[in-house]
Amino acid sequence: MRLTSDYEQSLQQRYAKIWADVMMLSVLMLLRDEFAVRDVWMHQPESGAKLKGITWGRLPPRSIYTRLPRAFGFQQTREMPPMLGSKHRSTARRAVKEDQPIFWRLRF
Questions:
Q1: 65, 4 contact by CB (below 8 A)
Q2: Backbone φ and ψ of 106, nearest 5°
Q3: Which of 49, 63, 74, 91 fits as disulfide partner to 67, beta carbons 3.0 to 4.6 Å?
Q4: Contact at 8 Å (CB) between 102 and 77?
Q5: What is the pTM (predicted TM-score) of this model?
Q6: Which residues pair with 103 in a beta bridge?
Q7: Which residue intervals of 16-108 are DSSP H helices?
Q8: CB of 44 within 8 A of CB of 104?
Q9: Following DSSP, what letter does each residue of 33-57 receive, concatenated?
Q10: Which of 22, 37, 19 is nearest to 105 (CA)?
């Protein structure tokens, strides 16, 4: 068991710097190539916390919702994903100031 744990630790140390990018690329390729998704939406940190009902404790790392979308060509927008119902749309709008983007959008 210790060998596995040492191996996992060495992998984590080796790939920690690129792990988030590799995972994002993998997910985007899967969505585009296998599921024929043409629009990928990600929320901004503030709207995401409201939509998920996170009102206390630690929030997810901001870099997941800022650096990664920017690095992969997502565009900031105040548009809403069509799958959101009206209740969630108004929650997301109230989460940010009027002129701030609410979501990231990537079109393939």
A1: no
A2: -125, 125
A3: 63
A4: yes
A5: 0.75
A6: 43, 77
A7: 19-29, 45-52, 62-65, 67-71, 86-95
A8: yes
A9: IIT---EEEEE-HHHHHHHHT--SS
A10: 37
